[in-house]
Amino acid sequence: MAADKKIISYEPMIHSIIQQLNILYDKDEYMQVGRIAVFEAVNKFDSSKTSCSESQFVYTLIRQRLIDEIRKVSRYQERQSPAEENIIEIQAADDSYKLENTAQKVLNERECQWFTLTLSGYSLKETAELLKVSVSTAKNIRKSARDKLQKVFCYEF
Q1: Does 51 share its domain with 12?
Q2: Residues of the chain with pLDDT under 50
Q3: Which of 23, 28, 33, 42 is most buried, by the most CB atoms less than 10 A from its CB?
Q4: What's 18's domain CATH number?
Q5: pTM to 2 decimal places
Q6: Which pLDDT score is estimated for 1?
Q7: 133 shares its domain with 62
Q8: How far apart are CA 111 and CA 94, in angstroms?
């Protein structure tokens, strides 16, 4: 059977998995991720290496890919979408100079560098590389800086 026909035959399965995962938005994009997963699964499947059927193998791969995509989208939205009650964002909108000056007074040197790089749009991984620290250390710097800034701006309101 041709790859196109295989993909089409597994579309009800993709749709079912999307329903199970409670995906409500961007269903077309998730359907496409599922179709790609089917294509890869059909090409990878080797009955001599596994005890499961092709449909079980395809199901598992589709489900894993969709969950990976959900996590990827979630991480992107967390990084790109402003939080509803993010005090720093509210303050920055009002007076960005005050924010930067306050940050320089409150934060230590590494935290201030993290803050500057974050405002410039660098990702956490890129920031860690520029600061010459591990990603875990960069996360600790971020947490410390956020805590200090949040305390300062909570008192100002």
Answers
A1: yes
A2: 84, 91-92, 157
A3: 33
A4: 1.10.1740
A5: 0.49
A6: 61
A7: no
A8: 22
